[in-house]
């Protein structure tokens, strides 16, 4: 059992070290930190911003209330893959599956699934075969338009952390909740243009109880804004930004800013760029991102790449998303 506890501790430090700068050393940022990784390529390409951007297939991960923001789509589903920290060590991987379905224009159901895999290791954290640590989140939510252009959402998460079978251990689990709010408004005398503001509180719940310790979830509150600005009939510019505050664990409470832009041509080809500014003393690095996407007949393929210095272990990570909306 002590070996499991040590293994969990090493995994937590290793994951947190992806964000920490070498000048400050590793930072233990608690449990389930895979929940802080952007869950789709579009958001990742814009610095991780997404609270107020049109949600669609991945709204359950960023702000469930945004699932109602696009009146032209009834539902959708998308899958995302990211080989996290690929330059540091192979074996870390994030898989996300998200979707939504509008019952009508005022109600929507949200579903999500996240799987984060670690390299094989033993109970002391050394890389050997036999133990396959992994973490899973199953999410279900509901979005409701309270009044015209004002929506709210609530999402329930079941979290499971499996460090492999050693002794009597069968893993640890917990539950968490997300709450979202979104308000959108058109811009007078500018056809197709509009802006939105949103609020999203995520990962609110009890600590995960491991064999030897209890670790806090990465509870975070974000406020965001976005603007859609079409021009010259065939072009559109989307600007978005989030201001976030990490609530727990107490040792890593800090502000962060994510901002990005998307250029779309005929809503067929998209180019994106963004930047995330974090507090490196709290284990949250700053980095730039860029990406692109294509969409045709409801099928969309998106890609994002993360740029950072050598001290950031997640440098050169990428995301690929494939989805269908209708």
TrEMBL record:
Residues 1-20 form the signal peptide. It comes from the Bacteria. Keywords: Signal. Pfam families: PorV. InterPro entries: PorV (IPR045741). Residues 27-250 form the Type IX secretion system protein PorV domain. This is PorV/PorQ family protein. It comes from Phocaeicola sartorii.
């Amino acid at each position: 059992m002590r070996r499991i506890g040590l293994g969990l501790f090493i995994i937590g430090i290793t994951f947190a070290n992806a964000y920490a700068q070498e000048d400050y050393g590793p930072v233990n940022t608690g449990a389930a930190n895979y929940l802080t990784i952007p869950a789709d390529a579009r958001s990742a390409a814009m610095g991780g911003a997404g609270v107020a951007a049109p949600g669609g297939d991945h709204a359950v991960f960023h702000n469930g209330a945004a699932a109602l923001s696009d009146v032209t789509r009834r539902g959708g589903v998308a899958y995302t893959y990211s080989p996290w920290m690929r330059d540091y060590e192979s074996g870390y991987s994030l898989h996300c599956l998200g979707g939504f379905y509008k019952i009508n224009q005022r109600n929507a159901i949200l579903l999500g699934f996240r799987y984060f895999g670690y390299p094989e290791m033993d109970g002391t954290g050394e890389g050997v075969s036999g133990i396959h640590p992994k973490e899973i989140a199953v999410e279900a939510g509901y979005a409701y338009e309270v009044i015209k252009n004002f929506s709210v959402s609530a999402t329930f998460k079941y979290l499971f952390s499996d460090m492999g079978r050693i002794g009597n251990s069968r893993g640890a689990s917990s539950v968490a909740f997300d709450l979202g709010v979104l308000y959108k408004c058109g811009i007078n005398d500018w056809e197709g243009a509009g802006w939105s503001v949103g609020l999203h509180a995520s990962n609110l719940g009890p600590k995960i109880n491991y064999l030897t310790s209890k670790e806090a979830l990465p509870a975070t509150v974000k406020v965001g804004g976005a603007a859609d600005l079409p021009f010259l009939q065939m072009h559109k510019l989307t600007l978005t930004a989030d201001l976030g505050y990490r609530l727990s664990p107490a040792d890593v409470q800090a502000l962060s800013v994510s901002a990005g832009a998307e250029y779309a041509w005929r809503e067929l080809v998209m180019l994106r760029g963004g930047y995330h500014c974090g507090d490196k003393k709290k284990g949250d690095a700053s980095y730039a991102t860029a990406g692109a996407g294509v969409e045709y007949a409801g099928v969309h393929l998106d890609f994002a790449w993360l740029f950072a210095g050598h001290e950031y272990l997640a440098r050169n990570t990428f995301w690929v998303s494939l989805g269908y909306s209708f």
